[in-house]
Amino acid sequence: VQLQASGGGLVQAGGSLRLSCAGSGRTFSSYFMGWFRQAPGKEREFVAAISWRGVTTYYADSVKGRFTISRDNARNTVYLQMNSLKPEDTAVYYCAARSGAISTYASEYAYWGQGTEVTVSS
User: Are 47 and 59 within 8 A, CB to CB?
Assistant: First the structure.
């Protein structure tokens, strides 16, 4: 599966953004999807993940209650709605796909999008 992330940009603290990740291929709905982020000088970290039918979701504690992951398998797209953004949310955000069980570990995702940059100003 090929992934294309979009929707990043510059936003003030407290604002919102919605990231999208479009996948190719007829098997998109069979993949668990995740969002990760990497801030300058830091390691890539887990943000959110969603099961193949969207029934199960996981969030990092740092974004719980502010971010929402969802998917539309008819459109081969997964979304990350980000509200109440903070400067510490500034990072390049990546979407990723894996088969098998849902996971919060980047090393377990086989397919990655190119990343979309989010900058939150204070």
Answer: yes
